[in-house]
Design goal:
2 domains, Jelly Rolls, 26 helices, alpha+beta, disordered N terminus, 851 residues, 6-stranded antiparallel sheet
Length: 851
């Protein structure tokens, strides 16, 4: 959910304008050669394949061990009544409490990873007998163990089938960047914000989110567990989301079993409930707070169902319920109290009935409630310590009119787990809409049957919990706004979907008496499972994957220039705040722009114009990081190029370089007028200064819109929208023979094959800038050309099964520059008396500089 002052970034072109990020070695021979394994300031290089294995496979196994170990500890302390399938979710709740307390005590924060490991190790020691028993029974519980693993695979499918470290919220929701920098900061520094530099974007983001009681429970567990393996949080983010989603499978199975499903039917139902369409969509966009809260809500439901195991017992029996409630509050905020209240009401009714029936003493009940309240208070202490701030955050979120990345409110029918479209944010059309409505109608009828079935089998505690979960949804929807309504709808969807699967349980029970109903059960299961999995497949096919190689390069910059900031970052990419976290980054087009540089960007996400920066304002930035793009001008003359990579350039301010007396931005397409140069020369002569003029590099442009292309590739405000496969062909001429570089600007999903004069130069794919409003300049392709005319061909093949292949692509611009041309061209130094030599020539800018 957005913070009070945070306008969540969505995909400006809509979900159908998704773009895929697949690293293609043809662009850069070393694009996937190395990734950086970081832990604080320590950096060491790992092969890309090893990082993929560590993040996608080793990390979730470590998380599972941590959560199960912590779950065993809680189980032992509470009396040993927890079902095995509940251990990961309860253990995650306990680890959230540990990580929250550790980061609250700032000096202890860096030890958080080791505290998590210690709690897990203690759990395996204390619960070794239970662990051995569970291990022996694992052969008989293959279905139960398979479901969380399958849920994890489905949740991480885009990353797994891309075969590289990446994440799927790219372009769709930039809030993931906030969680990355927040998790990193909290583990490294704890909740100590006194040393933040509030003049730049990084400090402002951290301060305005986490120093205002923004929920951080998911972030501290995420950061602490990833730091244990020293993994870059940017690559561990999606596996963490997929893992937390998978932990919901255990409590879902237990709830379905109470409804009457077991074996393969329960496995199918648990999987489809866990990864139902709306939940899966939120997992793909990185809604880490909600995905972490979901298993807590379902676990509360299970604890209600198995109340007889702990409610009449000793006070420590309430430990799991209290920890899960505290974890939900820490992860989602005080608003999670609505779900806790719903479960507590059912338990209160049961407890009062037990007391009246003399099955439990009032004194023991009061002790249990008091112990539980104390645990909730301690486990979520950072939230309660600044309760007024937490309430203010919740109120701001609940009342915000900002719809985030939603174009319109979500629809109530999305509760039923099927949405046959590329995005949950858009309404299906045509046959997809008809089929979606039909499957929703089936799920609705099944849910009614499931509700009747729950009452018929006398699962009254479960019935009460289900009813109150729907009441929570209805109540919050009445008082919430578009953004909150969507979140609540997602958190309620699994409750409705599992009720629909309860309808299948009713049909199966009836089919045991009436064999003619067996086909009905099969058809119902096919409709429920097919709708959910087909919806997920469509979202998978249009998912946005972050560009791995480019972020790898940013990580290398952070390691190389750490501590040499503040750094001005001219690209629009809020994930750079994580990758350049040791450089005190300021992004003029971020939501929180550097206070000293007003007007450098037109607003959030807009293009950067360094020419608008007051020359004195730039003196605070020893470094400027720019995208490698020949179409943009270089920084002022006080900066010199000190590093160039495939995607970025780093400019350092020369020691003692004075601020320009005047800096005038010009259009490289128009020769400068003599009157303008004369005025600058007079100023230079009066101040004893010189004229410095930046000449742009030689550029040969190729029009994408005027080129020959398929009719279904339609012109947009900038360039072409490439809908479906096709080929673009264009003629261009170069003025002289030699080595040239071919550049493309756009947002490219599946690879484009680029040929000149019938010779294949290579494939360009997975090149995203993160914002389709600003041109994304891709790494160049080198070629040798003779002087004169040549033929360019760009081919986009048909969609395959790879993640992201289902969306469109954008091609904004095509151009060539001589190979090795200096970035930003060259700088001419002219004394005031020689000002006429600048007349009639094109420049990016002219400065008046003393010295």
């Amino acid at each position: 959910m957005p913070a009070p002052a945070h306008a969540t970034t969505g995909d400006p072109e809509g979900a159908n304008a998704t773009v895929q990020s697949r690293a293609v070695a043809a662009i850069s021979p070393h694009a996937t050669a190395q990734f950086f394994l970081t832990g604080g300031s320590q950096v060491r290089i790992l092969p890309g394949a090893m990082m993929f294995v560590l993040t996608a496979f080793v990390y979730p196994c470590v998380l599972a061990v941590l959560c199960v170990g912590a779950g065993l500890a809680v189980d032992r302390c509470s009396g040993g009544f927890l079902p095995g399938l509940l251990l990961p979710a309860v253990g995650a709740a306990a680890l959230i409490a540990v990580s929250q307390l550790a980061t609250y005590a700032s000096p202890v924060a860096p030890a958080t990873p080791y505290l998590l490991a210690a709690v897990a190790a203690a759990g395996f020691v204390l619960g070794r007998n239970r662990a051995r028993m569970l291990l022996r029974r694992s052969r008989m519980c293959r279905w139960q163990l398979a479901v969380p693993a399958l849920a994890y695979v489905v949740g991480l499918a885009p990353v797994l089938f891309a075969g590289r470290p990446t994440f799927t919220s790219y372009i769709a929701l930039s809030d993931s960047a906030v969680h990355m920098i927040g998790a990193d900061f909290l583990i490294r520094h704890g909740q100590d914000y006194s040393h933040l530099d509030l003049r730049n974007s990084y400090g402002q983001f951290i301060n305005d989110y986490y120093n205002t009681s923004y929920p951080s429970g998911a972030d501290t567990l995420f950061g602490g567990s990833a730091f244990l393996l020293r993994l870059p949080l940017i690559w561990a983010f999606q596996p963490f989301n997929a893992f937390m989603l998978a932990t919901a499978a255990g409590p879902t199975w237990l709830l379905l079993r109470r409804m009457g499903l077991d074996g393969g039917w329960a496995a199918l139902a648990a999987l489809c409930t866990t990864v139902s369409a709306l939940v899966y969509g939120y997992e793909l966009v990185g809604s880490v707070k909600e995905i972490t809260a979901l298993p807590m809500i379902l676990t509360l439901g299970v604890l209600v169902v198995i109340h007889a195991r702990w409610l009449p017992g000793r006070p420590s029996g309430g430990l799991p319920f209290a920890l899960v409630a505290a974890a939900g509050v820490s992860a989602l905020g005080v608003g999670f109290g609505a779900w806790v209240l719903g479960a507590a009401v059912v338990l209160a009714v049961i407890a009062v009935d037990d007391v009246l029936a003399s099955r439990q003493s009032a004194r023991r009940l009061l002790l249990l409630v008091g112990a539980g309240a104390l645990i909730v208070l301690v486990a979520a202490l950072p939230t309660w310590a600044n309760l007024s701030g937490s309430l203010q955050v919740a109120q701001n979120i609940a009342s915000t009119t900002n719809p985030g990345n939603l174009r319109a409110p979500l629809r109530t029918e999305q509760l039923f787990g099927t949405w046959l479209w590329a995005s949950y944010k858009l309404v299906p059309t045509g046959r997809a809409l008809s089929l979606t409505n039909a499957l929703i109608a089936v799920a609705f009828i099944a849910a009614l049957m499931g509700a009747v079935n729950v009452v018929r089998i006398r699962a009254y505690a479960l019935a009460g919990w289900l009813a109150l979960m729907l009441a929570v949804w209805a109540g919050l929807t009445v008082y919430g706004t578009t953004w909150v309504d969507a979140k609540v709808l997602m958190l309620t969807s699994p409750v409705v979907v599992l009720t629909a699967w309860g309808g299948l349980a009713a049909v199966l029970r009836a089919s045991a008496r009436v064999r003619a109903l067996a086909p009905v059960a099969a058809i119902l299961a096919l409709a429920l499972a097919g709708g959910a999995l087909a919806s997920d497949a469509m979202q998978y096919h249009s998912s946005n994957l972050a560009p791995t190689a480019r972020y790898d390069e940013l990580a290398s910059l952070n390691a190389r220039f750490a501590g040499q900031g503040p750094t001005l970052f001219t690209d629009y990419d809020e994930y750079a705040m994580y990758e350049l976290r040791d450089l005190d980054v300021g992004g003029p087009n971020f939501i929180y722009a550097p206070a000293a540089l007003p007007g450098v960007a037109a607003g959030h996400g807009a293009a950067i114009h360094l020419d608008k920066a007051p020359p004195a304002g730039l003196r605070a930035y020893p470094l400027i990081v720019t995208r490698r793009d020949p179409t943009t001008g270089r920084p002022p003359a006080a900066y010199s190029l000190v590093w160039r990579g495939t995607y970025y350039e780093v400019w350092r301010r020369q020691a003692g370089a004075p601020a320009a007396i005047a800096h005038v931005g010009l259009s490289r397409a128009m020769p400068v007028e003599c009157s303008r140069v004369r005025d600058l020369a007079h100023l230079a002569g009066f101040r004893g200064a010189q004229l410095l003029a930046a000449s742009p590099p030689e550029l040969v442009s190729v029009s994408a819109t005027r080129a020959r292309h398929p009719v279904h590739w339609t012109p947009a405000s900038v360039g072409l929208v490439m809908k479906g496969p096709g080929r673009l062909q264009a003629a261009f001429a170069v003025p002289h023979a030699g080595a040239w570089e071919l550049w493309l600007q756009g947002e490219i999903m599946r690879p484009l094959k680029v040929s000149v004069d019938g010779h294949l130069l290579g494939s360009v794919g997975g090149q995203l800038g993160g914002d389709s409003l600003n041109p994304d300049t891709m790494a160049p392709l080198g070629l040798q050309l003779a002087a004169g005319e040549h033929r360019l061909s760009i081919t986009r093949g048909p969609a395959g099964l790879a993640p992201g292949d289902g969306g469109w692509a954008f091609l904004y611009r095509i151009f060539l520059t001589p190979a090795g041309a200096r970035s930003g061209g060259t700088i001419r130094t002219v004394p005031p008396a020689g000002w006429r030599s600048l007349c009639g020539h094109a420049f990016d800018w002219i400065e008046v500089v003393r010295g």
